[in-house]
Structure formats: C-alpha cells, structure tokens
Recover the amino acids of this structure.
C-alpha cells in the first residue's frame, strides 16, 4: 500500500468497521494519542481527530500508542504484496526470519541486492517507517501477544520477542503503553492459556473472506505421510528449527476471522519465526479484496472468483522440503508424488516418537543418499541429490532474498529442475505472481495470464480448483 492513502475509502472502512480492511491501514486518534485497527469496537472518533497510516510502525513513529481494546498486534498485518515494491515484500519476509538481528539494515539490503539508503526510502514510501522501526514494532506486537496469550515469564517474553535485555523490554513497554508489561498481563488474565511449558496457543487473524476448505483440500492431497496430518478441520505437522524439533497444528475459527495455532516447541526464542512461517503456510497476509478486484476484470476468471471467494495460495514450512516435493511431483500424479514423499521421509527423515511422526530429511541427509531404494528413477534421484548438495553448500537458498528471475535462474541450474518446477516452488514460497505455465491445466494461458499480474499465483489456484471440479 502506498503512502498516499485514499482518505475517503479509509473513512468508509473505519465507520463500517469493515474487517476486509483490517491491517491495510491504521487509525491514529489525535485526541487520545492512540492508534487502532479499522475494526476497533470503540466509539468512532470525530473525523477531525483522525489520521491514517499505512502501517502500525508508521503510527508508532508518529507518537501514537497501540489501542488496548482492538489490539493492533492481533491484526492480519501488512498485506503481503505492496504495490510496485517487490523489494519491500521480500524484505518483510526476511525480517520475519529475524534478518535484522544479524548485520542490520546494511546486511539486509545487501541480501536483497540493493543499497541500504534505497531500502530505507522504499520502506518510508510504502510503509511510512524505516526497516528498523518496522522490525521494532513487530517485536513489540509479538511481545504483547505473548503477554496476552501465554504464561511465559517476562524474561522469556523479552528474549522471544527479540529484546536484548529485560531492562530495554520494560522501558519500551512503559514508553509505548504508558504502563509496565506486568500490568498489561494482569489486564489480559482471561485471555491466557494454561498450557504446560513448551506448549503455546495463538490466534492469527486474516482479512475475510477466507476459503479454508479449498486450502486444506490442497494441503491434504499433498501431505507427506508421518510429516503432515491433514483433516477437514485441522492441519498438523512436525517442525525443526535451529536443531530442535516440535509440532504445530492449525484449525479455523471463522466466526473470529482467525486461525488457532498450537505450538509444541522447547525453545520460546523460536516462537516469532514459527508464527511467521505458519502465517505464510496459510497465506494470512493476503488481501482478498484486492486480488478479487483485479482478477474479476477477466471474463474467464470472474465466475471462478465469485464461486470461491477468499481462495488463498498455500505456502510451505520449508523451502527445501517443498522443492523436493516438487521434484517428486514431476510427470506423476499428486497421489503418486505423495507416496514417494512418504517413503523418502520414512527412510531418511529423523523419527519423532513423541509426535508419532518424522522430521522431513535435511539437505545433508539427502546429499549422498541411495534414493534408488525407495523407487526413484536415476534422473530424479540425481536431481534431489544435486539440489541437496547445492543447498548444503549455500549455492541455493529459499530465504526470499532473490527476486523471482534470479531465483529461477539459480534453481534451474540444478539438473532436472525446469521452469515449471521453479515457478511452482516460488508459488509455494509466497511469490504472488508465480505461474507454472507448463502445468497440464495451465497450458495455453501464458499470454492471457500477463493481464493477471501481479496475482498470477492466485489465478492458477482458481484454474486448478475449477479443473478439479470438472474431473
């Protein structure tokens, strides 16, 4: 979203408390010094006392405090695609993986292939705040969620949210909320869950509509046995991060426009990254009204968008895992690829008896593995080993730092990976304009799809959904 917000549109959304605009902008109320979400249940302030901001960070930078009633930290957040700035979108993904903790803005800009000054200018233009301010606001918001929704001691809340010390954590909250974290926790006593250590529950918001059934159907058909378990009302999988293992499970709460996420993981310091990755799996940053408005201009897509409002592009937990799954899916049925993925995980993955599952194999485990013994052809086995070696060496990365063209060039250098596979991987990594044009059901749409930019991945989902219903 550009800094030039349409004040009339924002006025309408604010007065209607329209959930479709939740997270697309924030409202600063000059008479109270507080900033709110468009859905805030508090009485609407006078128009003369209202200022609009494209991000929570911009409101915070302007000196406004987060509303304790509508809780800006619980909003769906900034839409995943920001107008013309793919660099900002990629930077936000990296910040979600704590990229600023190692080298600051300069290192982040270097990974994106642009200058740090240019990156700051882009953030100010599209978000109204610098990368550091955006990261700081995200840390504060996540800490507030931990205070409200978990029983973690304040020291662990501070560390999990990325604050260097409890002193800095306390000072930040006192300045931002006008009260210490302990007082905020007492006020949210009714919201916290009483899970034992290592177990956490969060609610992750989205902008409606949200087509849970279509997304879970897609994930269920491609679920790797023993790694993922998918039913009509729950997604569950094993996870690994920084050498530690755990599980996540997700179920819908449609009446509240959110998903409920349950995490079992031994290190609270990883919670921020786990939550961000789950948000990407379920495409919670999408702006369905923006996508629908664009795609419905096409006569072919218009009835599909109307029939399936809120269709999302399923993401993934790990880029290497989805790349292996894509290779296994070349020239075989979805069911056949899922069977092969299950064999691969069972043979080369790490068992998790406590979760009755396995962890998907790491690149190092597959780099020299005898993949023929699970029934893979020589060519497919070679592709998987070559990709595993390239990832282990650091030649191929799935962190989102490369633009789509650079990523495709890098990954298609691996034997056996062509444009279709590269585009499918990019799509599952959250690239909204990826389009696997070589797919059986997408062939012939390449020229027409140019008009669907920058939402071709969503168009692909609608076309796949339609082709599936005709079978």
């Amino acid at each position: 979203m550009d800094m030039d917000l349409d004040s009339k549109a924002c006025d309408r959304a604010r007065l209607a408390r329209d959930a479709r605009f939740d997270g697309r902008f924030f409202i600063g109320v000059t008479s109270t010094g507080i900033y709110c979400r468009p859905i805030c249940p508090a009485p609407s302030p006078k128009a003369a006392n209202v200022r609009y901001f494209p991000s929570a960070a911009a409101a915070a930078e302007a000196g406004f405090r987060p509303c304790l009633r509508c809780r800006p930290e619980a909003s769906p957040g900034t839409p995943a695609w920001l107008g013309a700035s793919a660099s900002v979108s990629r930077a936000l993904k990296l910040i979600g993986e704590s990229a600023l903790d190692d080298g600051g803005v300069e290192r982040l800009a270097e990974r994106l292939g642009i200058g740090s000054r240019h990156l700051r200018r882009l953030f100010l233009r599209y978000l109204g705040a610098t990368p550091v301010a955006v990261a700081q606001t995200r840390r504060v918001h996540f800490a507030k969620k931990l205070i409200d929704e978990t029983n973690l001691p304040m020291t662990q809340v501070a560390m999990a949210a990325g604050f260097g010390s409890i002193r800095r954590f306390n000072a930040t909250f006192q300045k931002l909320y006008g009260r210490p974290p302990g007082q905020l926790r007492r006020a949210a006593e009714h919201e916290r869950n009483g899970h034992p250590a290592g177990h956490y529950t969060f609610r992750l918001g989205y902008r409606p509509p949200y087509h849970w059934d279509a997304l879970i159907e897609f994930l269920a058909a491609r679920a790797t046995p023993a790694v993922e378990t998918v039913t009509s009302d729950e997604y569950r999988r094993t996870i690994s991060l920084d050498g530690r293992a755990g599980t996540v499970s997700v179920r819908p709460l449609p009446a509240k426009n959110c998903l409920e996420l349950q995490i079992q993981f031994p290190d609270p310091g990883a919670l921020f990254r786990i939550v961000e990755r789950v948000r990407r799996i379920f495409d919670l940053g999408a702006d369905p009204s923006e996508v629908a408005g664009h795609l419905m201009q096409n006569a072919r897509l218009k009835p599909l968008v109307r029939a399936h409002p809120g269709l999302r592009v399923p993401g993934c937990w790990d880029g290497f895992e989805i790349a292996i799954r894509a290779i296994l899916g070349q020239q075989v049925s979805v069911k056949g690829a899922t069977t092969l993925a299950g064999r691969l995980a069972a043979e080369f993955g790490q068992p998790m008896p406590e979760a009755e599952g396995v962890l998907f194999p790491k690149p190092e485990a597959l780099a020299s593995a005898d993949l023929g013994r699970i029934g893979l052809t020589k060519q497919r086995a070679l592709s998987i080993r070559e990709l595993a070696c390239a990832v282990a060496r650091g030649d191929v990365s799935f962190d989102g730092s490369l633009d789509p063209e650079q990523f495709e060039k890098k990954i298609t250098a691996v034997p056996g990976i062509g444009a279709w596979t590269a585009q499918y991987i990019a799509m599952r990594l959250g690239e909204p304009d990826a389009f696997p044009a070589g797919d059986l059901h997408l062939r012939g749409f390449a020229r027409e799809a140019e008009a669907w930019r920058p939402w071709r991945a969503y168009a692909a989902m609608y076309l796949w959904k339609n082709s599936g219903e005709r079978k």
